[in-house]
Amino acid sequence: MPLNSVVSAVTDRVIERSREGRTRYLDLLTRERDQWIGRPMLGCANLAHAYAGTEEDRPAMKAGGGMNIGIVTAYNDMLSAHAVYYRYPEQMKVWAREVGATAQVAGGVPAMCDGVTQGYAGMELSLFSRDTIALSTAIALSHGTFEGALLLGICDKIVPGLLMGALRFGHLPMLLVPGGPMPTGISNKSKAAVRERYATGDADREELLDSEIAAYHTQGTCTFFGTANTNQMMMEVMGLHVPNAAFVNPGTKLRQELTRAAVHRVAGLGWRGENYRPIGHCVDERAIVNAAVGLLATGGSTNHLLHLPAIARAAGIIIDWEDLDRLSGAVPLIARVYPNGSADVNGFEAAGGMAFVIRELIASGHLHGDILTAGADTLGASANKPMLEDDKLTWRDPGPSGDDTILRTPAEPFSPDGGMRILAGNIGRSCIKVSAVERDRWIVEAPAAVFSDQAEVLAAFQRGELDRDVVVVVRFQGPRANGMPELHKLTPPLGVLQNKGFRVALVTDGRMSGASGKVPAAIHVSPEALGGGAIGLIRDGDLIRVDAVAGTLEALVDAAEWAAREPAAAPPAAEGFGRELFGMFRGLSDEAEKGASAVLAGAGL
Questions:
Q1: What is the pTM for the complete model shown?
Q2: pLDDT tens digits for 138-164?
Q3: Residue positions in the annotated binding site?
């Protein structure tokens, strides 16, 4: 099947726009490869420091015959998805020895849990934790003692941050190593129902807590298709995992063998061999477009409208929301996973998972099947599911969809398009995800209720002031204002209002979560309110039109009056919970469409 014409045109657009930056980046990789401060060049005292922490591997390291693999780990046991990494480094060292290599923990990176910080002050550090992770990854790899790396990370900001840092060492071969989702707890429908009952006062805190614990009940990634699992999907379609490692549960023999295979694989990708595959060459324009196609075909997290441009920039590539919008019109939605369906990622995996998705999207011409992959020799290898036969790892074709309420072919999709839209108008430029929104709610026209904090929205909801047709406007939530926290706590009350029959929408310069669902939400509004963005001109009662059909976001206010308005005054910068330490990040951060990154903006990328 030839490449889809829109995918081809968007790829050409990305390549042309990125030509100068990508050339500079590839030149950097060549210089770094040729001038790399590696182990043969380090002084004896430098090497002695590097080898002092290990005794068993010291002779092999001193001999220098095999690759020394740096492990960058996001382990902590507060985050369920990353708690599984506890023993990975010691296992990886054993598996490296099996193929004549060695491995060391190069460094750790922070890994905060957005599920813990949702709605509270810590969430204002969430997006900038991505930049912190990128910096931490660079520090970990800066020692010059590694010929390759394994990146241990799964969740929301961790994978993008690891990649942003790792790509500045793009002459090294690297793989990302997932840990897998926790087994299924209570159904997502049951969980959502209790949340909405709690929002209306019909469930108490004990019932809500019991429900949440039944959903998030053990080690492993949360099972809804939010940002963490969208990360994993993207790594698969970019070829940065051992094929189809993403959604195998922790604690299984298959999970262990996939991790072992990752160690063996990266050990064979160094420049001393014939299969040199540096990560900076693997992450090219076509791989970035693949990630965008996967995002749209599976109904993934809106957070990647920030993360994908940031990852791309770290590799000298420019992709923007216009590219995503064009692709969305051509890429069919072939997966329904909660919050865009009833099944969780375990149900998705059982129905065929990423093997089915990749096979079908290559066959339909929506994925670049010829990208340089790190996890296997070709992306086509990822069109097969891993399994154990006589305790040996092998891969097999997934067959037809095991459940056509979860996975369908591009010929018979859930929707002919990917469900992401760009909205533009006198309020600014924003994104909306409609794959989980009923078609009759794609257009909402209603008076504005304006807030500067999601706590204000919740209080107004409790007072009954929002029991009407309403467009809730929450501003001063952008990266420069307060770090662009997710406004996930608004989902249940706005859902309640919608269930009552009201026409409801959200407009914000902040983020929604990867679990953005059934309420239409125009998010990431740019320019943001801080600094004079037009969202700061909206007043209570202004008629607002959110139109995902026409792609418009308008305040239906007389043009002369609109032009004469003064922007709302920004609330004072918050202190406490360490937020003041991130003032530099807020000050340097660029706009959402570029990735909302202080580190990339500060580096001139």
A1: 0.95
A2: 999 999 999 999 999 999 999 999 999
A3: 155, 222
